[in-house]
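Record format v2
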Amino acid sequence: MTTTLRTDLPTLAEIARRMTHAGRGILAADESIKTMSSRLEQEGIASSPTARRDYRELLITAEGLSDWVSGVIWSDETFGQDLSDGRPFPQAARELGILPGIKVDTGTSKLPGGGGALITEGLDGLGDRLASYAERGAAFAKWRAVFDVATITPYSARANGHALARYAALCQQHGIVPIVEPEVLCTGDHDLGASAQASSLALRSAFDELVQAGVDLAGIVLKPNFVTPGLDAAPATAGTVAAATFGVLSDLVPADVAGIAFLSGGQPTADVCESLRELHRLGERPWPVTFSFGRALVSEALHTWGGDVRNVPSAQQVLVHNCRQAAQAIR
Ligand code: 13P
């Protein structure tokens, strides 16, 4: 029997391009059940699978979302749920012109011997999970390594870089674009230089490992933090943040990486949009820059909704407004 190679499927590079080009970004709505439950409860909403489903349905069905958003990331729970009209979330996203993505790491634990640093878990059984997500329509995946400026070491950067590389290589084997996220947290009172140093260490280790694992860099999306002073330190201007971020990225991110989509790190929407705008304005870059914000896009919408179906249209308007603000920063 002869097998025919399917030539109608987009390549990893084409998917990654679609995620990051053309002035659209990626909505991160992949909070774990625990995190989502605590965010709902902070708004006085009892957490349940249905409440979490209703909230994610509100996000994905917001009219006009696909004008500004190319993809959305969900956690396993949402990925397996149906909208109230019975369509599975991944199918609904594709019908709305939005690529469905799945967070596949399983969270962090203390890295043994890491002096307080964290290691991201989730490699066991990952191949089987990716096969199932691919079959259910996942276009891309996400894995988040998390570093604190106070505890990052060459060893913790290397260990997390290695896990990111193994995850990314496995994703590509399953036809899924990996979002590679080495996040340096902005909590703390460190200065801009400390953030630059920690971000450089995290990125250098991640790319060393990605290259050694033979990952096709044209088929990944990098999701970094902005290089900023800690939230408890004196703030820097958006221009300073953009210049520092660009300095670190241009030293360490190879030109063939498909695109860069920033996380917001819990910073205010206006601040991260302004940093993105300044970075975009800096001119010649080998890779496109866009956003993959979570809280900066959704926090206000969640608050506006408050669990009341009558507030769905206004919550959706707030969400789309924030997505438009972020997308306009890169157009
Ligand atoms: P924030 O933009 O809220 O930091 O979330 C982005 C994200 O996906 C973190 O993993």
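The radius of gyration is 19 Å.
Strands lie at 25-29, 69-74, 99-103, 108-110, 118-120, 140-147, 177-184, 221-222, 259-262, 289-291.
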